């Protein structure tokens, strides 16, 4: 067995307002990935329910739960039963009035290997996340697991090279982005293509700049706006995995639920960094202004 090769599963699915239905379908997807040999399985952002951030509604806070709590108990048991490392994404109720968009990583024995709270919080039409989520306070620290150090970030984080860089500098062996991103149905096709391609390009650039594989797992399908204000969101799927030179290793469709598995050779990170030594040539003496808002 080649210890540097890791089989990674991605569960790309559509979500309904029915939590138990979503979780049952997610577990079926995880099992399908494990049947294909996956040792690490990654789930999309906020996979237990609808993407409730389409409107500002205080009743949606009822969807949040403590960590540990019901969802962590369920997914802990799945990880333990299937002997996998599992990356999940939950709406965390931390304290009265304090909620986070939190990724929870489970080890093969079902224990919580670590958590990451989404750091960058968007506020755009149909993506009103600042209403719901307090910005993360755990920093950019990889989570140590039996399959390696995982640099877990969440959705809007994927547009920020600083987040990817800090995870890489802290020793992440791959970057993982649970995601919920899609189109406004009223946008024309050219605008949709520009948005989707920008999303892909940005993450492939993180792979290249840091010499790391990237796993990006997105929702798929239409979700109506429960408030009836907008036309809802068409989540564009296209989950993908790329290698440390930005090369595609896997790409899902834009309109189907899929359970996919890909092999990642972690040794290629060292090989690529030897020929493209970006970390060697960084001018760390000249970057002080990066901590300023604007120059």
- Count of distinct structural domains: 1
Q: pLDDT average, as an integer?
A: 97
Might you state the CATH topology name?
Nitrilase/N-carbamoyl-D-aminoacid amidohydrolase
Alpha plus pi helix count? 6
So, the CATH homologous superfamily?
Answer: Carbon-nitrogen hydrolase
What's the shape?
globular
Determine the strand fraction and express it as a percent band.
25-35%
The major pleated sheet works out as:
6 strands, mixed
Protein name: Carbon-nitrogen hydrolase
Pfam families: CN_hydrolase (PF00795)
InterPro entries: Aliph_Amidase/BUP (IPR050345), C-N_Hydrolase (IPR003010), C-N_Hydrolase_sf (IPR036526)
GO molecular function, one term: N-carbamoylputrescine amidase activity
The gist of it:
This protein is α/β, with parallel strands linked by helices. It is 25% helix and 28% strand. InterPro entries: Aliph_Amidase/BUP (IPR050345), C-N_Hydrolase (IPR003010), C-N_Hydrolase_sf (IPR036526).
Describe how the helices and strands are arranged.
Blueprint: E1 5-12, H1 19-35, E2 40-43, H2 70-82, E3 85-95, E4 98-106, E5 112-117, E6 143-145, E7 148-152, H3 161-169, E8 174-179, E9 182-183, H4 189-210, E10 214-218, E11 220-223, E12 233-236, E13 240-242, E14 248-251, E15 258-265, H5 268-275, H6 278-281
Helix pairs in contact: 3-4
Keywords: Hydrolase
Protein name: Carbon-nitrogen hydrolase
Pfam families: CN_hydrolase
